[in-house]
User: What shape does this take?
Amino acid sequence: MQIDFIFDLASPNAYFVHKMLPYIELNTGESFNYVPCLLGGIFKETGNKAPFEAFAGVKNKIAYERLEIQRFIQEHNLTDFVFNQHFPINTLFLMRCAAAESLKGTAELKKFIDTALHHIWEKSANMNDPEVAAKILIQSGYDFADLTLRANNKDTKALLVANTKSAVARGAFGIPTIFVGEQIFFGKERLSQVEQEIKRQTQDEK
Assistant: This one.
């Protein structure tokens, strides 16, 4: 079964989904395929905007969004989460790194994701600053020169763009998006539906 998680490290909701996916994998016996994409590219292709921008003029909307985040954190005990004080984060370089790591394999990609999300959404690191990003990656055990070289490779850049365009073509308009086969689910609030759909498709295959 093909289950794709469309993600960008810039999204706090992608962080929440990433933290919850291991439980769904445990409950279903299926694995998620992480697909690095550019949230800004998805917005550009679809005309979408970030919630803090799209709903800026809607009274009470942003306050409610924050309330829902706190409820999700409490429900799932994700108390390590800290909203990054440097938000929004420009993750273009980091997502190119993620794409480069994806070419090495799933384990390498998930290790990079864990590292980046930890520093962005738990340590509130200013990953907009290239020097800060470099220092963190070096301290995390990465050969920064090699990673940068691979991230800036034309094939890596092309892969990230292709992933983004493909996600939009399949119906994505934001992140986090999950495809279970051809079925699309958007947002952390749909995770129970994702699990149900995986189980349904698994049953259909028997």
Remarks:
- The mean pLDDT is 95.
- Residues 17 and 188 are 6 Å apart (CA to CA).
- The longest helix spans residues 12-28.
